[in-house]
Amino acid sequence: MSWVIGEVSMSLRRTDGKIDEDLIWSRSGVDVFEPSIPWRTFRWRNGQKHYSGTHWSSTMRDHVAYESRLELTRLLYADFDQDVTAVFAQPFLLSTTVDGRRRRHVPDYLVLREKDVPLVVDVKPRHLLTRPKVNFVLGWAREVVLSRGWDFEVWSEPPEAELANLRFLAGYRRDRLFDEDLLAEIRAADLDGATLGDALHAFPGHPDWRVRAAVLRLLWSQHLVTDLTTVLSQRHVLHGGLATVVGSGRGDLPRPVDESELDDGDDELVWRMQGSRSGGHVSEAAVRVGVGTRLKYDGEVVVVEEMFGSAAGNELLVRDGADRRFRLSLRGVLSSGRATVIATGPGPEADDDRETASVLFALLSEEELAEVRERAAHVNEVLTGFRSGSEELAEPGEPTPQYAATVPKLQRYEAKATELGVSVRTIKRWVRAYLLDREAGLVHGGPERGSGDMGRLGRADERWVEVALEIMAEHGKESKPTRAKVIRMIGPRLEARHGKGEVKLPTRATAYRWLEELERRLPTFRLSTKRNRDIAARPRGTYGKLRPTRPGEYLLMDTTRLDVFAMDPIMMKWVQAELTVAMDWYTRCITGLRVTPVSTQSIDVAAVLFQTYRPRPPGKDWPSSAVWPDHGIPRGVFVERKALEEDVAEESKGGATKGAAGPALVPETIVVDHGKPYISEHITSVCQRLGLSIQPARLRTGRDKGPIERFFKTLREGPLEVLPGYKGPDVFSRGERPEDEAFFFLHELEAIIREWVACVYHRRAHRGLLDPNVPGLRLSPSAMFEHGIARAGYIDVPRDPALGFEFLKTEWKQLHHYGVEIRKCRYNGPGLDGYRGESSEYTGAKAKGLWPIQVDPDNINYIYFRRPDTRRWQALEWEHAPALKFPISEGALQLARKAAGAKSPFPDDESAVADLLKRWHLGLGLTLPERRLALRQAREQSAFDLPETDWDDVRALPSVARLLASSGDEDDQDADDLQVGEAEPYEGLAPSDDDDDDELDGPDDDEDFYVDALEDA
Q1: For residues 286 and 278, what is the distance between their CA atoms, to the nearest angstrom?
Q2: At CA 679, angle to CA 674 and CA 685, rounded to 5?
Q3: DSSP character for 395?
Q4: What is the pLDDT of residue 495?
Q5: CA of 250: how far to CAs of 152, 154, 157, 917, in Å?
Q6: Are 554 and 546 in contact (CB under 8 A)?
Q7: pLDDT (tens digit per residue) in 569-601
Q8: I need a surface site. Which of 141, 249, 453, 826 has the fewest CB within 10 A?
Q9: C-alpha 504: how far from its chain's center?
C-alpha cells in the first residue's frame, strides 16, 4: 500500500532541554542525534501491565530507556551486535502529511551502525502487526524512512531459546569487571572445535568460577562463538568468527487483517493446528491441510498453493495477501504454534458448551456411576452381543440367542426394550448417544448437564448477579458496606434498568447466601477495605514476573517501617525506625541493610547498595558457618582450603574474626519502587557510574518485589516479635503501651537483624528456592549462592579501595581561588592546586565546564575531588571542621543557621553549630526536625568505608602530627566542654530525602513525574 506523503520534518530534544522543532529531514544528518535525549519520558500509572526502566547499555556506556520488556530485548540484541555504534531511545518526533492529514510518530529506537546506514526501529508485539490502525502507522513511517535512504525495522518477539541465551550472557557485558590477563590467556588458547564444557575446565591454574565467568564474557564479546539458537549447555561447540543471531526484526509489514475477514460464513471457524480438546466425533476433530487451505501465519492470512516433498521433509508453498509467495516447512507450521488453520466446516471446539467426560463423571455419585456403567453394558450387548463390548472379555453364556450377531438390529432393540421395560425409542436414543460420546452420552443430561447452572448460585438470575457485582465493585474505594445495604440497592437498580417486576427478587435468606458466594469472586464484606482493594487490583490473567537466571541479575531494594520501637539516646524515649534492605533475587541472600531513624534518605539507599559491593564485617561471636570469606564466595566452593584452615585456627586462638557478614555481589539490575530515595538523581547517577540498570516496580504492585516483601514478614514474625517494644503490624495488633518497652538503640537493633540474617535466614531452607532439575530439593540462600556460582561463575567485585566515593552524591561546582563553595560552606585543600579557576572538560546540561564534587550529606566536614592527572581522590576540608571532632550533617547545619539567625542578624557557622550541639546535649526545646537530625547524627556506624586520601596521608606524617598535636589540646578541651561525643538522635515529620524538590517529583503523582509514553497494547 502506498500513500501520498508530503514534506517530512523531525523535532529533537537536546540534552540542555531545548527543542529543535520541524527540522527538514533532507537537511538533517546523523550528527543531530548525538546530543539528543528521548523525546518523551515514560510514565507510570496504577494498573499498567508493562515494565518500563533504564538499561545500562555497554554500547552507549550509559542508560538507555525502554517502555516494555519487549523493547529491552531489542536493546540486548543491539548491545550484542558488534556493528552497532550507538542506540538512541525515542530519538525524534516524525511529522508529515499523509493523504492530506497531518501525522506524527515517535520511533522507539535509532540504531547507528558502523558498516551500514542508520536503522529506525519500531517495537510491536507480533499479534498487533495486522491490526489496521497499527499497520497504517508503521506503514507510512516505514515508507518515509526508506525514502530518506535509511533502514526501517519492526521488532517483535525473538526466539525464546536465543533470547534466553543473550539475556544470560548480557550479565557479562561490563568489560571492566574482568581480569584482562585471564581473558588474554583464554583467547590465546586454541579452543576452536572444543566444547563449552572443555573450555571451562581447560585452565586448572585458575578457580573454576573465575574461568566460567571469563569464558562467558568472551562469548558475549564474540571472541568465542557458538550456536545460540538452542539453550546453552556444556555440549555446545566453540569456534571463531562472528556470532549469528536470528532475532525478530523484519523490514516489511504483513497485510492488515480485520477480524471480519476470518468469518466469511456462519459455519467457518478458526482452528488451532493442535485440534480440539473437547469431546465429540474424532473424525470431525481433524482439519484437512492441503492445496487451498487458508492459514493465519504470524497474524497474516496465507493460502496453500502447493505441497511437495524435499530432503528436509514436506513443505508448503503459500501466498499472502500481497501476492507474495514463500515456502514453509509443514513440520514447522504444525509444531511451532505460529500457525492457525481457518477451517471450512463445522466441528467440535474447545469453547463448546459441553463438559468433558471426566468432569461429568466427577459430578455423579457412586449409585449414578453404577447406573451409567450398567446402561453402557446394555448398549454394548445390543451392538456386539457382549456386555463388555469385546469377544475376548465375554462372560459365561454370551452371546445370548436374542443378541447374537445374526439377529437383525431392530429385533435386538425390541428384545432389550422388553428386558428393561422401556420403549424401543429409548434404546435407540441410548445407542445414538453412546456412539457419539461413549459413556458420557449416557449421563442424565449428557455433556450439556451443567448448562444453565451458576455453580453455588444455583439458577440465580444473571441480571441480579450482574447488578450485585456492579454495586460491590463500586465500593472498592469507599468504606466497607454491609450486605443489607447492597441488597437494598439491588432492587431499585434492577427496576430502573429492566422495568418493575421484570426480575424476580430472591428472599432475604437466599440473597445473603448468593452474596456469600459472590464474596469469593469480589471480596467486599469480610476483609479490610485495604485488602479488598489489593485483591481487586490483581491481574485477571496469569501472573507474570521477572525470572532471575544467575546471582546478581536482579537486586531487590525496599524500605519498610519496622514493627518495633527503638530507643532515643537523647531523650531516652521511643522512636520509629525504618529498615532498608537489598536482596539478591536469585539466591534470596540479603546483601545489605541499614536501620535509620524515622525516614530514609537517598544516602541511606546508596549505603545499602555499597554494602552489596563491600559487605560489613561479621560480629565477634558469630559462628564460623555464618561468616562469608572476604570475596563473598561461600566456603563450599572456596578453593584455598589451606587458607581457610589457617583463618579458623587463628579465630580459635582469640584472633579477630575475618570474613564478611554477607556475600559480595556485582548487581546488574536494581528493582526498586517509586519512593523519593530510590528515584532520586543521586541513586540514578550512582547506577549510571557503576553500570547498573534500573527496573522500577509497577505502581502499587507489591508482587513485583515479592521476595523482599516476604522477607519483611519473616523478619517481623521471627526476631522482631520477641523483642521488647514490638508493636505489631497494625494498630489492631498493638499492645496497650509498647513504646514504654523500647530498649534497643538503633545501631543495636541493626546488629540484631544483621546477625539473625547471617545465622538463621541465610542457612534456612526456603520454599521458593529450588533447582528445576531437582524440584523436591529445597535450598537455603547460601546453598543457592553456591548453586548460582557453579552455574554462572562469579564476577569479582571491584577491589578498588576508593569504590565508596562512587556512591556519594555528585555536585557540579566551580573551583575558585579560595576553594569550593557548597551550601554556603567553603572547602579547600592542596588537592585543588593546579586547577583553581580552570574550567573542566565536562559538557552537558549540568556540567557546563564545572567540576564534579562528591558530597556525603551526613558529613559536611569533607567533600572529595578527583584530580584528572592522577585520578586519585583528594579530601577538601570545611573551613570550620577543625572546631568539630565528629561529622555533622548537611541538615544539621541548615537547622543551626536557622536557629542562630533568630538570635543574631549576623551568625557564623561555627557558633551556630556549637549552639545546636549544646541544645541537643541538654535536651531543651528540641523540635521534631532537631530530634530527627540528632538521631541521624548519633549513629555509631559510618555509611561508607572511605579510604584515606592523599591529604590524610600528609597529615599522618610525624612532622605534621607534632604540629597538629600542639593545637589539639585546645580543641580537645572545647570538645569536652560541648560533651557531644555520645549523642544519638530521634524521629520527626521531615521529608524522607535530601534531594532538591526540583530534582524529584512525588512517587504517587503520575501527572507530575511521568509524562507521555506509549504503553504496551
Answers
A1: 12
A2: 160
A3: P
A4: 92
A5: 8, 5, 11, 68
A6: yes
A7: 655 667 889 999 999 999 999 999 999 887 888
A8: 453
A9: 49
